[in-house]
Amino acid sequence: MILQTFGACSSDGGAPVPPPVMPDASTRVDCTDASPCATCEASGTGNLVGDVIADQSWPMDVGGDLALHRFCGVRRGVLIIETATWCTLCTERLPLMQQWIAQYQPLGVEFVFLLGENQNAAIPTEADLKAYRSVHALQASIYVAGDPKWTSIKKTVLHSGGVGTLPGFVLLDEAMKLVYTGDGGDKALFPQVSDALGTLTGSPFVATRGCDGFCGKLAPGGCWCDDLCAQLGNCCEDNCGVCGYCP
């Protein structure tokens, strides 16, 4: 499954140049498998922001393996979402992730949900991967793959927030350079990912739907809003008479 996306190429088709601030269609250059906009070092150059991340592959829910460097040069970038079937926070934040997908996939960012564990904290099987896509109604253009205990991605990417908290995010540009990484242990994580996607594409994140977070607790001004409610610009006290789940 290959989606037509766009990236910024140098005139000789070699090294990538920084992506412009969303040029109009007349100035865009198509990047294809036959004529990529970047070349990526398969062995990688390191595991920190600014380094090329080594190629690796993961089994997919649709069968076969997903090679990370398949996105090299023919996509603007890729966001890897580290998750697990048991991860409640991952499910709660899925509406926000779907907004990222809606805004940034048309701009050339691909999305990979990378499962490390199933509901029983065991290594996910192909059936688990298929079930994850089905339960969360992930569209066919989204990749779902498995990385047992996230061993591969944790080995090749130094996560800024540490390890063991979900969801985790790894954002790479078209040259497979690490742009951003963080994990769910940081409440500021979600706005940071939104900002990183906006910087990569030149298109700031714009929320398109209301709050799907929690009001949290009573505060002097009404209901206290969690970070997701505040980020989406539809704070809980505007909607909740008492604290509870935001409409």
**H/E order of the elements?**
EEEEEHHEHEHEEHEEH
Helix content: 10-25%
In the CATH hierarchy, the third-tier topology of the largest domain is known as: Glutaredoxin
Number of domains: 2
Structural account:
The N terminus and C terminus are likely disordered. The protein has 247 residues and is of the alpha+beta class. The longest helix has 13 residues. It has a 5-stranded mixed sheet with strand order 7-6-5-8-9. A two-stranded antiparallel ribbon has the order 1-2. It folds into 2 domains: 196 residues, Glutaredoxin (3-Layer(aba) Sandwich); 38 residues, no CATH class. 20% of the residues lie in helices and 18% in strands.
Spell out the key features of this protein.
single chain; 247 residues; alpha+beta; Glutaredoxin; 6 helices; globular; disordered N terminus; disordered C terminus
Annotate the secondary structure layout:
Blueprint lengths: L5 E2 L21 E2 L26 E3 L5 E3 L9 E7 L4 H5 L1 H11 L4 E7 L10 H10 L7 E4 L4 H6 L11 E6 L4 E6 L5 H13 L16 E2 L2 E2 L3 H5 L16
Please summarize what this structure is:
By secondary structure, the chain is α+β, with helices and mostly antiparallel strands. The chain is 20% helix and 18% strand.
